[in-house]
């Protein structure tokens, strides 16, 4: 079993300081095998916002795997130069130079893909070259390794917004994801926490893949939900997604969903009663699980 702390959409420049400190406190109590940040570190990609985001990241546990979001590319300006010539200059300067991040141990493999693009303000997509990365890195892995791909833009829309801004051309990427045995997709962007089998949206998809989105962890740009992040446990046939939401001045577990893979299909079990969520399932220290 492996544990992933999945945070997204920090939006430095529009951060609630109390929530940001609360996230540091909450994560300090846990030791995830991997911390994933699925983009939108800043509000406007300004150097000062990146500096604050980088300082924040240094206070979070590692190892960390991060990808940029659409807000991490400068907006159009008087010369159009930053957006089109060096769109991720500040990201590479302050966050990481690695735009093709990989994490691997003997049970878990995670590939980060930059889906943010200069030619669109909000939307994003995956390039042919990036799909080749999936083939090269993910396809050779044995079934015993749990395979995760991280993008900023989600593959599936939230249940309440079927027309929401999801990754462009998702159908074109499914062949690689299926053929290479991807088990889970992580994303953010919409500032809503939701997850489901990819096939809930793509009826023709051949492989059951879990698509998991995190809400905004620290920003004031909430969309009717509290700030939240996902505490995810993965194993070959059992996954748990625990949403930890900001409530009463702290992050608390608000919803836990367990998926069991039966005959190759991820089946969503009823929301797990908190009392039944043992430490072996969530990986969280005792006393951190509360029903809200
Ligand atoms: Fe965002
Ligand atoms: Fe975004």
Describe this structure in words.
The structure is a single chain. The protein is α/β, with parallel strands linked by helices. It has seven helices and 13 strands. The strands form two sheets. It has a seven-stranded mixed beta sheet with strand order 3-2-1-10-11-12-13, with helices on one face. It has a six-stranded mixed beta sheet with strand order 4-5-6-7-9-8, with no helix packed on it. The C terminus is likely disordered. One fe (ii) ion binds next to loops.
Q: What secondary-structure arrangement, pairings included, does this model have?
A:
Layout: E1 2-7, H1 17-28, E2 34-38, H2 47-58, E3 64-67, H3 81-85, H4 89-94, E4 102-104, E5 108-112, H5 128-137, E6 146-150, H6 170-179, E7 184-187, E8 194-197, E9 210-213, E10 228-235, E11 238-247, E12 250-262, E13 265-268, H7 279-282
Parallel strand pairs: 1-2, 2-3, 5-6, 6-7, 7-9
Antiparallel strand pairs: 1-10, 4-5, 8-9, 10-11, 11-12, 12-13
The structure holds fe (ii) ion (2 copies).
List keywords for this structure.
single chain; 292 residues; alpha/beta; 7-stranded mixed sheet; 6-stranded mixed sheet; 7 helices; 13 strands; 20% helix; disordered C terminus; binds fe (ii) ion
């Amino acid at each position: 079993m492996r544990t992933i702390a999945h945070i997204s959409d920090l939006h430095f420049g529009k951060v609630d300081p109390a929530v940001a400190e609360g996230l540091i406190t909450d994560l300090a109590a846990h030791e995830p095998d991997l911390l994933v940040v699925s983009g939108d570190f800043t509000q406007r990609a300004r150097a000062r916002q990146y500096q604050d985001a980088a300082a924040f990241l240094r206070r979070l546990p590692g190892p960390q795997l991060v990808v940029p979001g659409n807000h991490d590319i400068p907006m159009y300006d008087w010369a159009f130069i930053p957006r089109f010539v060096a769109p991720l200059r500040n990201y590479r300067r302050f966050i990481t130079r690695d735009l093709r991040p990989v994490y691997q141990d003997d049970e878990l493999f995670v590939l980060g893909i930059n889906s943010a693009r200069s030619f669109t303000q909000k939307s994003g997509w995956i390039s042919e070259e990036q799909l080749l990365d999936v083939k090269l890195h993910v396809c050779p892995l044995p079934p015993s390794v749990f395979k995760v791909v991280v993008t900023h833009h989600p593959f599936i829309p939230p249940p309440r917004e079927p027309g929401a801004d999801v990754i462009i051309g998702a159908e074109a990427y499914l062949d690689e994801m299926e053929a290479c045995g991807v088990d889970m997709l992580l994303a953010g962007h919409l500032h809503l926490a939701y997850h489901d089998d990819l096939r809930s949206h793509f009826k023709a998809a051949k492989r059951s893949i879990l698509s998991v989105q995190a809400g905004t962890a620290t920003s004031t740009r909430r969309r009717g939900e509290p700030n939240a992040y996902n505490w995810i446990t993965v194993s070959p046939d059992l996954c748990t997604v625990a949403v930890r939401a900001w409530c009463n001045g702290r992050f608390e577990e608000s919803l836990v969903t367990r998926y069991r893979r039966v005959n190759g299909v991820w089946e969503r079990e009823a929301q797990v009663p908190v009392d039944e969520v043992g430490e072996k399932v969530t990986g969280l220290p005792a006393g951190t699980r509360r029903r809200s």
